[in-house]
């Protein structure tokens, strides 16, 4: 298949039956693989306390199980734009699932904490490739008129896997030790790898693009420095910082500035590691700004809910997982419906009501207190998830549909990178507000805070999230459905022809 053929299939009529069948196989297998890696990412959060106790490590060391994973994603995702252009779909899939499977095996058999962290890093290397691969493949194969429907299916994966992850983790940990999480995940990952080797087709034709090593280095320092600095900022608010937060933030900020400058220079000859010309598309830029707010709110609420329920209301971790499960399932099950509504009516009738309901749900959370009933927490979380279900599919689809086909891989990598940075920022902000609130309530440290002091801190953090959610309502007025890619070759400064 030539690049011209790919671009035509993504923007015009339906493919022939054989091609349509091949496309369906590719998308279904990629959806299944992404579900597996997303499920793995969310099962670990519940297991960290047990791992700390078993390996006799401190909380600051235990934090590296999630921090190292996030840092690896921040380094890997910006490079995926190059990988998706340089390698075939099948090669990228096999590489990603091999890395993920190898990392899972390393973690399952780890004799100590250091090897366990190494296994998580290898896992993250595969995880970071999968989502951009799925997004780019969908954009390449699915016409503009049908993208909402397929993006709705992607939202199922993004919602249901994180929703059931804590519940699955809690169940496994009740039956076996923490290594059981990896042993359960390993055969599933290997099965996906074997099926992928046998069935994943090549749906794009790679082209020779240069790899700018300096861009890779600057990207690693920039994005990982910012993500680590933001994560460390949240830990500093709890008195658990590994180092002064300004050090990684300054290093990351300088690295990020140099990385952006380098891409602006390289993209003039179509050689950027992460092509920033995507931001010249108005709908892409507006959607990314909206996405930043959504991810900051989502990650903040996700980290805050278990803290409030466990330390404020003394609720068991398994019950917490089951409490959060219905919301995630609702968000996922809404995906196909929202996708069809997007294809028919566009984003405006979805994102404006969705952002208003999201804000209302978070404002309702500011009333959580020591006497709040679990049913009210459950209902509030379901309403929030319902609102987010009406937001993610339209935002993803609007952002990516604004791009021409040759920028699909860069747009997908940009979305993945922004997700990591915005998630780290949201987590840091909510944890910082939690710490400030507990301190104002009289707690000398976050670790020694009483349930009442934890609830006071959570109250302040929820207020911060509610104020942030108001910006999403404003952003919703500017989201419009692209009827065609918004960038032309002239706007991209006469992009060189691909060979």
UniProtKB/TrEMBL annotation:
UniProt-annotated location(s): Cell membrane
InterPro entries: EmrB-like, MFS, MFS_dom, MFS_trans_sf
Domain Major facilitator superfamily (MFS) profile: 26-484
Residue ranges crossing the lipid bilayer per the database entry: 25-44, 64-84, 91-118, 124-144, 156-175, 181-201, 213-234, 246-265, 286-309, 315-338, 350-368, 374-400, 421-443, 455-479
Coiled-coil ranges from the UniProt annotation: none
CDD domains hit by this protein: MFS_LmrB_MDR_like (cd17503)
PROSITE patterns in alphabetical order: MFS
Topology of the protein relative to the lipid bilayer: Multi-pass membrane protein
Keywords per UniProt: Cell membrane, Membrane, Transmembrane, Transmembrane helix, Transport
Keyword Nucleotide-binding: no
Pfam families: MFS_1 (PF07690)
NCBIfam families: efflux_EmrB
Family according to the record: Belongs to the major facilitator superfamily. EmrB family.
Protein name as annotated: DHA2 family efflux MFS transporter permease subunit
Species whose genome carries this gene: Protaetiibacter mangrovi
């Amino acid at each position: 298949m030539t690049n011209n053929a790919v671009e035509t299939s993504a923007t015009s009529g339906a493919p022939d039956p054989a091609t349509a069948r091949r496309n369906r196989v590719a998308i279904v297998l990629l959806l299944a693989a992404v579900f597996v890696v997303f499920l793995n990412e969310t099962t670990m959060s519940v297991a960290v306390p047990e791992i700390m106790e078993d390996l006799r490590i401190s909380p600051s060391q235990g934090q590296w199980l999630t921090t190292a994973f996030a840092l690896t994603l921040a380094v890997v995702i910006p490079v995926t734009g190059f990988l998706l252009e340089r390698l075939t779909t099948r090669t990228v899939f096999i590489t990603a699932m091999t890395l993920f499977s190898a990392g899972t095996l390393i973690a399952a058999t780890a004799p100590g904490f250091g090897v366990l962290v190494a296994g998580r890093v290898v896992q993250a290397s595969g995880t970071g490739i999968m989502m951009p691969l799925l997004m780019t493949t969908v954009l390449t194969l699915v016409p503009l008129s049908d993208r909402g429907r397929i993006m709705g299916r992607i939202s199922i994966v993004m919602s249901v896997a994180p929703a059931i992850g804590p519940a699955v983790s809690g169940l496994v940990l009740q039956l076996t030790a923490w290594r059981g999480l990896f042993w359960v995940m390993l055969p599933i990952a290997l099965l996906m790898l074997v099926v992928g080797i046998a069935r994943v087709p090549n749906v794009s034709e790679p082209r020779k693009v240069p790899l700018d090593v300096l861009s890779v280095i600057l990207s690693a320092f920039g994005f990982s420095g910012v993500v680590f600095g933001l994560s460390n900022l949240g830990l500093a608010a709890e008195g658990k910082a590994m180092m002064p937060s300004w050090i990684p933030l300054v290093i990351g900020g300088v690295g990020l500035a140099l990385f952006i400058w380098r891409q602006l220079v390289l993209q003039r000859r179509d050689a950027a590691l992460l092509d920033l010309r995507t931001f010249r598309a108005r709908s892409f830029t507006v959607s990314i700004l909206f996405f930043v707010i959504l991810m900051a709110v989502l990650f903040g609420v996700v980290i805050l809910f278990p803290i409030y329920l466990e330390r404020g209301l003394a609720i068991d971790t398994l019950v917490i997982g089951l409490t959060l499960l219905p919301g995630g399932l609702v968000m996922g099950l809404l995906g196909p419906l929202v996708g069809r509504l997007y294809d028919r009516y566009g984003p405006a009738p979805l994102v404006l009501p969705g952002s208003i309901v999201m804000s209302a749900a978070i404002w309702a959370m500011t009333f959580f207190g020591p006497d709040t009933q679990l049913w009210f927490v459950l209902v509030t979380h379901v309403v929030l998830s319902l609102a987010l279900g009406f937001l993610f599919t339209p935002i993803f689809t609007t952002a990516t549909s604004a791009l021409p086909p040759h920028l699909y891989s860069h747009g997908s990598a940009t979305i993945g990178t922004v997700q990591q940075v915005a998630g780290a920022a949201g987590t840091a902000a909510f944890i910082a507000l939690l710490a400030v609130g507990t301190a104002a309530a009289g707690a000398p440290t976050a670790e020694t805070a009483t349930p009442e002091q934890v609830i006071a801190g959570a109250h302040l953090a929820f207020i911060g999230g509610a104020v942030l959610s108001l910006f999403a309502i404003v952003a919703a007025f500017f989201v419009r459905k692209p009827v065609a890619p918004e960038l032309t070759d002239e706007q991209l400064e006469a992009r060189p022809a691909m060979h």
